[in-house]
Amino acid sequence: xxxxxxxxxxxxxxxxxxxxxxxxxxxxxxxxxxxxxxxxxxxxxxxxxxxxxxxxxxxxxxxxxxxxxxxxxxxxxxxxxxxxxxxxxxxxxxxxxxxxxxxxxxxxxxxxxxxxxxxxxxxxxxxxxxxxxxxxxxxxxxxxxxxxxxxxxxxxxxxxxxxxxxxxxxxxxxxxxxxxxxxxxxxxxxxxxxxxxxxxxxxxxxxxxxxxxxxxxxxxxxxxxxxxxxxxxxxxxxxxxxxxxxxxxxxxxxxxxxxxxxxxxxxxxxxxxxxx
Length: 276
Hints:
There is one protein chain. By secondary structure, the chain is an alpha/beta fold. The protein has a single domain, classed as Rossmann fold, CATH 3.40.50. The protein has helices spanning 14-21, 42-52, 60-70, 75-84, 106-114, 132-136, 157-161, 167-173, 205-224, 252-268, and strands at 2-9, 29-35, 97-100, 118-124, 141-145, 153-154, 175-180, 190-195, 244-245. The longest helix has 20 residues, at 205-224.
């Protein structure tokens, strides 16, 4: 008996991840643990996603419905809607979902520790797990990171890396990684990376993040459908560790500067209006 635990946040963009993983057939059981610190209205979100499923041409009024329901939409999430359409179910609306406010509580620890199946975990989080998770899952925890390691670690990594890197550096870092989790931040052994191929054709830094999200979700979807996933022998140690970026340092000013820097890079490369 194999159980896959999926740990993620109650955010609009994680709905794409949940939608992909919910179709997994490689595991006997899938348990979704979704952190919701906003007390979101589950029934409202289910209704909105069902109503607009697949729609990529939402009016401002309809975007505002999602913005209010989720307590905010990021520019990357708006970009995802326009390019990929609305996913059919919110992250807290999937079957076998446990909504929680902390992954590291004693209640959750007791629950997962009591599960004596072969446990594996796929995670996409905005927080750090306590070390007991690694012991409980015997290291079978894989993180999806929305940048290419080892180049850019942490939160808002590719956006902040833009502010200190060359265009060539960004080409290496834009994309996604899946890697095993250890006690460091994005320091675990790498299973697979994938770079964005259309980087300079994208309109904004928020489009980069949108594509990086989707690339990360596709990598973890493909991986968890493999019969030999979580073998611990399918990875490579990182040769070095790139800079670590923190959410608290990505200020409003840096958000504006990141977009300005990306536009300037495109201009320096002779790229205009999203086309080479």
